[in-house]
Design brief:
The chain is built from 16 helices and 18 strands. The longest helix has 30 residues. Helix content is about 40%, strand content about 20%. A 7-stranded antiparallel β-sheet has the order 15-12-14-13-17-18-16, sandwiched between helices. A 5-stranded antiparallel β-sheet has the order 5-6-10-8-9. The chain has a 4-stranded mixed β-sheet with strand order 1-2-4-3. The chain is an alpha+beta fold and about 425 residues long. The radius of gyration is 24 Å and the shape is globular.
Length: about 425
Amino acid sequence: MLRRLCNFGNYLNLGPTFIKAIRKMQTQAHGLVVADAIESLAAVVGKQNVSTSLAVRQHHGKDESYHECQPPEVVVFPENTQHVSELAKICYEHVLPIIPFGTGTGLEGGTTAGRPGAVCFDLSKMDKVVSVHAEDFDVVVQPGVTRLALNSYLRDTGLWFPVDPGSDASLCGMAATSASGTTAVRYGTMRENVMNLEVVLADGRIVNTAGEGRRTRKTSAGYNLTNLFVGSEGTLGIITKATLRLYGIPEAMTSAVCHFPSVKAAVDTAIQTLQSGIPVARIEFLDDVHMMACNKYSNMNYKEAPSLFLEFHGSEQSVEDQAKAVGEIVALNEGLDFVWAKDVEDRNRLWKARHNCFYAVLALRPGCKPIVTDVCVPISNLTEIIVKTKEDIESSSLTDVLKRWMVHALGNMGLAWASAIYW
């Protein structure tokens, strides 16, 4: 009703005073509704699991993106699926927005409360690995389980979950955002690695997208609801359990860095590697500015030139064969010899530096904020879009200082080009 009055006031041009009064009434009404809802929320999870503290709300009103903090009205900490269901029913009854929160490592502002009366569901207390089926290569996890925590839990099974977006994100959050990462070129994104989801809908109903307890890999029977919810970013429901594919830990893993005389040469090498069917596990492009930032931030000493970070998985012989085949393509594009990282410590240090690129470039200009975006094109257009974007920046009317700090990095080679601007 108040919203209709506000729209009616705009229609009749009654002026800002009338509109301001109506909006004040809206805020007061929301306050009363939220206050009433908080008592009901506390009755479900206990007062110790409900917080209206400003510090807690601000922590849940922002992620790693440039968006300003917009805190929710209240934060609740459910401990099981039934809690989530009952809490959702209360929010549905009071017409309050729900914001699921995992680890807050996103880059798109998905955890910010854009509407008044928002209730944030912090799922970190639901942190159990429900079951591991080593013989079937799958695992069932709750939303509070993170990527690194799962792989630590699996360390004695000879299995691992390879999807690696860089941050230690929650696995259900990764499903909700359809996360990918540096290993997507070999193992796929979350969309290819989620087998079943337990989801609480906005009205509190609980659904299993592939059927309760189902762990089958084939999805041709019935609607593919799982992939409907993967990437829905919390808009269709709250993921409270995920069944994920696992993989055997490779016998051998070897990483390398290779430098090139130009951006075109580096990207052409990556495209030709993919088109040749060489099963590289990771292949990432960083331009000269990004290499400079990584050297400074991670105390590394690589050549500041367009570069590819690569990793090979398999048996000792297959890894050697892959590296040899890629080496021939590198030579055709005038790339320099590989700088190898064969030990676990060296390999982890290399990929940690790659994952820290976001913070490395931020460190170049303290106090600045980033705008990050993805551009997806067919593999055949990859070289063209990167080269032309670099040319557009150089020929633009931006000042030399701004041009210098506009940084681009190609992530998940052949899948997406991530571009970041820092100001």
